[in-house]
């Protein structure tokens, strides 16, 4: 193993975006692409590593800035190799500036390293300064000050996969459709890299969208309201109405298709697959399997909706509340544990509604697990009802028409969450696990 691969492996294991927990990465360097730096002293290289540690190998994008001296951000130091100090690219202005040049068309992403760019800007624009965001994220986000005074949110995808990333394709369609519910997409970068078996893959490497000023994170807002016993029903109603507006726009600007028997079979297959994965990781779920399966089968026999593009991983952490713009929806990448090819397929809007309903339950679940527990079950029930009322204020009787589907998706999401928590936050497994038990026992909305 080379010095670089060893250093990156040790460092990567500590990163939140490293998706295989509790194991040592087993990395293989697939390719490295060097970008043109503005400063001759630094080298900017984006590496693609295959990690063989998980059952299905994953490819990671690792941009690195190599400096002659140890004068970068200490927290972002990957290590020293070949007489240079290697820093995590997104914390380095040189890397961000080069990425923005590529994404906005100021620099051609030519065939040399097989990158392609796209943007919605009328002219290239440079970044003046940048700051990496911290916090729990699947990817790495950066706030950049643009030369025209605007701010942009730049997202660097860490796990890269072959195919269309809905974070870019959904936002591109919504932006051209004039969405008021999402930030505008400003630019993106698509790249090509070799696959571990000698083939070639292409997919999105980064995107840039406008930064929503003064935005508060939906999860933090909801938790703080719940812990103080503050009424959240008006906000939840608006969030429901906003979700339905978003769905309407998606149906207008992206393909829709009536669900067929094959779609139902595919969806059921996906849900049972998740159930099996979860049961393997958390064996207590096995005893709930028959009850869960009955709900799935009942939904499959019920009337079918028209399928369309949806958010795909909707929860309170995927919405921002901005004073001037109201609720804004972000992160259209879909569930990180789901294969990319599935994530752009037309789906049922009730899947998103179910995701948000689960999130209100998580607010109560997380407060119940505090050192001094807070009972927010009433708060969550009110928020849930207000959200559904808000959705119905725009979408009419859709929730009532497809309530069996909604029940099934709520269970499916909770089953997914059990596996997610087992990998990321085992102490929180009881939140979705008790939700599954409750949903089976009551089947109420
Ligand atoms: N357009 C935006 N304006 C302001 N903040 C944003 C914007 N997009 C994302 N954020 C902030 O960045 C965080 C991570 O973004 P997100 O798209 O959810 O990334 P990830 O794919 O890593 O989950 C969000 O929780 C939010 O706080
Ligand atoms: O935001 P991501 O796309 O990374 O989504 C993943 O992580 C989420 C947690 O950060 C996870 O969401 C679950 O926990 C939330 C509270 O932290 C809660 O609001 C959600 O309802 C719950 O699903 C999400 O499932 C996962 O895909």
From TrEMBL:
Recite the UniProt keywords alphabetically.
ATP-binding, Carbohydrate metabolism, Glycogen biosynthesis, Glycogen metabolism, Kinase, Nucleotide-binding, Transferase
EC numbers on record = 2.7.1.175
> Hey, which pathway is this one from?
Glycan biosynthesis; glycogen biosynthesis
* Catalyzed reactions per annotation: D-maltose + ATP = alpha-maltose 1-phosphate + ADP + H(+)
Q: Which residues form the Aminoglycoside phosphotransferase domain?
A: 220-333
* Keyword Kinase listed: yes
| Pfam family, any one | Mak_N_cap
Q: Which InterPro entries match?
A: Aminoglycoside_PTrfase, Kinase-like_dom_sf, Mak_N_cap
- Start and end residues of each Maltokinase N-terminal cap domain: 11-90
Family from the record? Belongs to the aminoglycoside phosphotransferase family.
The record describes its quaternary structure and partners as: Monomer.
Query: Know the name of this protein?
Result: Maltokinase
